[in-house]
Specification:
The complex is a heterodimer of chains A (332) and B (294). Chain A is mostly helical and 332 residues long. Chain A contains 13 helices and 2 strands; from the N terminus they run H-H-E-E-H-H-H-H-H-H-H-H-H-H-H. The chains are: A mainly alpha (332), B mainly alpha (294).
């Protein structure tokens, strides 16, 4: 990749030290001594390496591998009052993929991703391109303000938009009322999709914009100069140089956006009470798993839902990677 | 010539782009409107809130002081406790996660030990696992060992930060030259001493970035504490406000008094974040962009 970033500068102090040459220090020693020495450094490398990585490794095992393993184990059992706990192997999975609540939740998050991700990406790309062109003080200020929602908890973001949507104290009713019209109710079951779409776009567009903007800043400006000399228009430069060079960064952030959106939970959970009736407990797969675990205390089935969702995420990411690999070839 | 000089020159040469500035101004308004609404409406009492004519402007009387008093005394001052809990979870979890990530990232970058390659590929896979996906499995595990509804149930899972390890590793590979470490070893310094005296100072920027990102992500966490905690005195502010909000919505008209403090509570809870955001911008961007591009 030809991009560099705004991030920490990688070379520092590297050139000041004179490299120690192995030949000078080990030249007079015999082969036997050299091997022994190498073995000792190997041991030292192993012990020190594991001591540094070890603490994280323990946390990793205890809080990632263990919970996942345990949930996987639980998902193979079924609990009932009459029969107690019994091993059902893939029984829960057969059940979950035929469960209308799970299917409708998955269908919602897939549909939501399909609309959200292109919209969000187009907006952040457009803003990044504008900010790459305009270099005024105001542009710098806008960049910061557009990025600001990323620092806010999703809970508070959802809540703030919930206030704005509200019929009781939001401005929508006032604004439309002034023209004698009824405002749209983004908390009704018809419009909740758009309502959530707006909340998520607002929260994350700035984050994607910053990533794309940094990638754009890393492009060598002499490329544009050369293109201009060849008679390329501004649009051609944007499409043929900027967007093409951004493609790898775009694919990567799309994957992260996809994984995040399929796990949708916080925003619908927060808006659930405000949007009376529009968001049921099985609205997204994660909300359904939460309901199973907490309201119904069914750990086995809840674990199954978590894993089934994981499988769906895996398949979607795989399809996406496959699709963009082709598209990548087409672009470059 | 410094970078800002070049930027300034470029700015002088380029045209003014009036239409683009108008687009930017509209975007800024859109992105700031929720903040504006919260600032304006946390100044209103419930009468101004529900009966007011203009949702985007102040009512005739400004009630910040009165609302603040209510916010911090409601339910026996529960809100202050929530703020303190959030701070505890954010700093304990954030600092712990950073220490682990710095050690591991450095270890992966600078030592060739048995299992390093496999370990690192597993780590890269784990970066793709979102924290949300782990909440319910972790909850089920913790409930088996009786850890739920304690502060540890929130702090321990936030210690896991594979992305932080990845960032530190990426940075340490370039920023900490092997020659410098070897020189320290030749001088007789042990591995840990070399790490503290030589590597740590060189890694300072990435340490600040990882610390910032982990503190903020644990401050913003909602699903995890929501799942783990039952006792409302242990709630962080996100779960607390969520609780008030659902109470107020459920009780309809009877909950109207709560709304003023919910709105002000939202505002107060994001002020520390906005300050951190504005004063430490450099580190935010550093972490995000490096992570996404390499």
């Amino acid at each position: 990749m030809t991009t560099s970033t705004n991030g920490p500068a990688p070379t520092r102090g590297g050139r000041r030290t004179t490299p120690l040459s192995d030949d000078i220090t080990t030249a007079p020693t015999t082969d036997a001594v050299r091997t022994r020495k190498r073995r000792r450094t190997n041991l030292r490398q192993n012990v020190a390496g594991w001591l540094f990585v070890g603490p994280f490794g323990i946390i990793f095992l205890a809080l990632l591998v263990l919970p996942i393993g345990y949930a996987l184990y639980l998902s193979l059992f079924q609990k009932s009052l009459i029969l107690g706990t019994k091993f059902v192997f893939l029984g829960n999975y057969l059940k979950v993929f035929g469960d209308p609540s799970f299917i409708s939740g998955v269908w919602f998050v897939v549909r939501f991703s399909l609309v959200l991700i292109p919209v969000q990406m187009a907006i952040s790309l457009a803003i990044a391109l504008i900010l790459d062109t305009v270099t005024s003080k105001f542009a710098r200020f806008s960049r910061l303000m557009i990025f600001l929602p990323y620092a806010i908890p999703t809970v508070i973001g959802a809540l703030m938009w919930g206030f704005l949507y509200s019929k009781n104290f939001g401005p929508i009713a006032d604004i439309f009322g002034a023209f004698g019209a009824a405002g749209p109710d983004f908390l009704s079951s018809n419009l909740i999709f758009s309502g959530l779409l707006n909340v998520v776009t607002w929260q994350w567009a700035g984050y994607y914009m910053i990533i794309l903007y940094a990638a754009l800043q890393g492009i060598d400006p002499s490329l544009y100069e050369a293109a201009r000399i060849d008679g390329a228009s501004q649009w051609q430069i944007i499409y043929r140089i900027k967007i093409r060079l951004l493609a790898p960064a775009l694919v990567l952030i799309l994957v992260f956006a996809l994984i995040g959106t399929l796990q949708f939970f916080n925003e619908p959970k927060i808006l659930q009470q405000l949007a009376a009736g529009a968001i049921p407990d099985d609205f997204t797969p994660n909300m359904y798993a939460y309901q199973q675990a907490f309201t119904l205390a069914n750990s086995n089935y809840s674990s199954t839902i978590s894993f089934a969702l994981g499988a769906v995420v895996f398949i979607c990411v795989y399809i996406f990677m496959f699709a963009t690999r082709k598209r990548g070839n087409f672009l470059s | 010539m410094s970078a800002t000089d070049i930027e300034r020159r470029r700015a002088r040469r380029t045209p003014r782009h009036i239409p683009l500035h108008i687009v930017l101004a509209l975007l800024v308004i859109y992105f700031l409107i929720p903040f504006w609404w919260v600032i304006v409406n946390s100044s209103k009492d419930s009468a101004g809130l529900f009966g007011g004519t203009n949702a985007l402007w102040f009512a005739s009387d400004i009630n910040y002081i009165e609302n603040l008093k209510q916010l911090f005394t409601y339910n026996g001052g529960l809100y202050a406790r929530w703020l303190a809990n959030s701070a505890l979870y954010a700093f304990a979890g954030g600092i712990g996660a950073t220490v682990l990530a710095v050690l591991a990232g450095y270890g992966f970058a600078k030592y060739s030990f048995v299992g390093r390659r496999v370990g690192f590929s597993i780590l890269l896979g784990a970066v793709m696992v979102p924290a949300t996906a782990l909440v319910i499995p972790t909850f089920i595990l913790f409930s088996q060992v009786g850890l739920t509804d304690t502060i540890w149930s929130v702090i321990l899972p936030t210690l896991l930060n594979p992305f932080g390890v990845f960032l530190v590793n990426l940075y340490a590979r370039d920023a900490v030259p092997d020659e410098l470490l070897d020189a320290a070893r030749v001088d007789g310094a042990g591995e840990f001493r070399t790490f503290v005296k030589v590597a740590l100072p060189l890694m300072r920027p990435v340490i600040v970035t990882v610390l910032l990102l982990s503190v903020v992500s644990s401050w913003n966490n909602y699903f995890l504490p929501l799942a783990m905690l039952v006792d409302n005195r242990l709630f962080p502010v996100t779960v607390g406000i969520g609780l008030w909000q659902s109470t107020a919505s459920t009780y309809g008209a009877a909950g109207t008094n709560l709304w003023s403090i919910i709105i002000l509570g939202s505002l107060v809870s994001i002020i520390p974040l906005i300050i951190a955001f504005l004063s430490l911008q450099r580190y935010w961007r550093g972490g995000l962009t490096v992570g996404a591009l390499k």
